[in-house]
Specification:
With about 290 residues, this protein is of the alpha+beta class. It has 2 domains: about 70 residues; about 140 residues, Heat Shock Protein 90. Helices cover about 65% and strands about 10% of the residues. The chain is built from 8 helices and 5 strands. It has a 5-stranded mixed sheet, sandwiched between helices. A hairpin with a 5-residue loop joins strand 2 and strand 3. Helix 1 packs antiparallel against helix 2, helix 5 packs parallel to helix 6 and helix 6 runs antiparallel to helix 7. About 20% of the residues are buried.
């Protein structure tokens, strides 16, 4: 018996009981029982039926609710483990692999200048790993509901840190409603935008950095990291050291989003769109000029 049927039975049994009692009383017992006695006995009869039948239904309903709660808790735990595994794989694990590659490159460096350059790259990679670990620990310290509702604030803080390190002006414009994104979308979107900001920090040498997030007319969204730095020539994903952008593209592909990396008019735009936002997105990029 499902929960809905149990609830209906809990509502109907007392009503049917009092209705059946009144029918029996008027049809068969009226010659033997006064109206006052019948009225006096009615609540006790309903109470007796409630204790025998309805209490059992309440117990079954509570047992069903406890089982549902356990299932939800298990599902939430599995989702959290999947999220942590994804972050470790796409963030820390990739950075550690890159660190190992650069250590091999350091061992094979032919001269002191090449070793110094590789050592600088190693220090930058270690800083990236430290940032990934720090962000993961900060999110773990938040309770689930707080982390869900405060997920935008770390992006704002990371933008501020990026602007401080690069001595750039920062602007954060976010108009996507909280309830428009699911939990997994928030996790993936946060990771993608964080990686785009790290890319700005490492390569852009920008004077202005923007993080924008807006709804589209079609009901989707567009998020972008825009800077006025040095930009890139050719295909950005093929450039050396652009492992982060490749990870962003892979994450976007898994979520069914469109990844874009464009450079023109003095602006570099790394964007993620859902359900088509070309015209609206172009207006946003133009407004950032």
């Amino acid at each position: 018996m499902n929960d809905r049927r149990i609830k209906w039975m809990i509502l109907l049994i007392p009503t049917l009981t009092i209705g059946l009692w009144e029918y029996v009383r008027h049809a068969f017992l009226l010659p033997y029982m006064t109206m006052d006695l019948g009225n006096f006995l009615a609540p006790f009869i309903v109470l007796a039926v409630t204790l025998t039948l309805v209490r059992g239904l309440f117990a079954r309903l509570e047992s069903s609710q406890r089982a549902l709660q356990r299932e939800r808790s298990l599902s939430a735990a599995l989702e959290e483990r999947e999220r942590l595994a994804g972050e470790l794989h796409d963030g820390i694990a990739q950075s550690l692999f890159l660190l190992a590659v650069k250590l091999d490159k350091l061992d094979a460096s032919p001269n002191e200048a090449a070793r110094a350059a590789t050592a600088g790259e190693l220090r930058e990679t270690v800083r990236d790993v430290h940032e990934d670990v720090r962000q993961a620990i900060a999110r773990l310290r938040l309770p689930p509901e707080a982390a869900d509702h405060a997920w935008v604030e770390p992006l704002r803080e990371l933008l501020g840190e990026t602007a401080a390190l690069t001595e750039a002006q920062a602007e954060f414009r976010w108009e996507i409603p909280e309830d428009m994104l699911g939990a997994k979308e928030k996790v993936e979107l946060h990771a993608c935008l964080r990686e785009a900001l790290v890319n700005v920090r490492k390569h852009a040498r920008a004077d202005r950095v923007y993080v924008v997030g807006e709804r589209t007319a079609e009901g989707g969204f567009r998020c972008a990291v825009i800077d006025d730095g040095v930009g890139f020539a050719g295909e950005p994903l093929e450039a050396p050291g652009r492992f982060g952008l490749r990870m962003v593209r892979e994450r976007a592909g898994r979520m069914g989003w469109t990844f874009g990396a464009t450079c023109g008019g003095g602006l570099t735009v790394i964007e993620l769109t859902k359900k088509g936002a070309d015209k609206y997105g172009r207006r946003m990029a133009d407004s950032a000029r």
